[in-house]
Amino acid sequence: MRLPVTATDTYGHYDPSLDVDDVLVLEDGVPQQIKSVRHIPANVLLVLDTGGDMNGLGGLSKSTRVTRGVALRVISRLRSGDRIAVLQSASQAELLQPWTSDVDKLQQVLKTKLFATKRSRIFETMTKAAHLLSDQPEGSRHVILITDGVESPGGKVAVDEAIKQLVAARATVHIISYTEFVRQKDDRNPSNITAGVRPPSSDPISANDPTLPPGATRSPSFGIGIRFDPAMTNWQYLRHLPQGESRTLFASLCRLFDYKWYGKEPATEAEYREARAIAERLLAPTETAHAA
Description:
Helix content: 25-40%
Oligomer: single chain
Shape: elongated
CATH superfamily of the largest domain: von Willebrand factor, type A domain
CATH class of the largest domain: Alpha Beta
Structural class: alpha/beta
Distance between the termini: 88 Å
Order of helices and strands: EEEHEEHHEHEEHEHHHE
Strand order of the largest sheet: 5-4-3-6-7
Number of helices: 8
Number of strands: 10
CATH architecture of the largest domain: 3-Layer(aba) Sandwich
């Protein structure tokens, strides 16, 4: 029987001096005889989940920049002689880098070949990871998943099957979860969306009406304010919008944009007019009614 063992000192640093006398293995409380301790290089498979623009945990999608940074940090902490391969979970499982111990090559691959996509096939990628690991020596197989665990709809591999195959590969599985990376909506990190009375300066009617005194308006106007964040997508903003007409209109605009941009279809004149009309309705202030 082979048991993978990692020895570290009190500071968490790898200890290469481990020998037979340093190891105690118990089975049902009974010490077992240890015949040898072998120091073998690790075979580490990085599974990087960069797909699923609309599937982010807590309404916030994964960040390819963060995924790349974590992967580079993992690589920097591996020992000389360890071999690494890189799988990307995007619209399909994609092998970015076969097994190699060339750290410079791995860094270049992560910086130039890792891209975000609309869909994530994390379960399909897990099954491909199991096949790649099966060719490596037992006791040295490691897989590191950097993911939020969300599979885009339409995948052909179920989560149970993916886990079953990964377990059968007899690999040590490490999961770096996006739970700690994504920004959660709380009091310390408020939403980028605000709703309520518009300030007079943002109301085009009162701001440009010379018949009214400065700062005055005929009646309060209400609308949606967005604090721009380049890291957020259209659909992430949508999730923060309150229920109502503005949310419905914005969803229609996002959907129309996705069809044209990602489908690479030219917009017709009718579609342009439809989008313009929706945008104008979104930007127009809503006047409150007063009883006579």
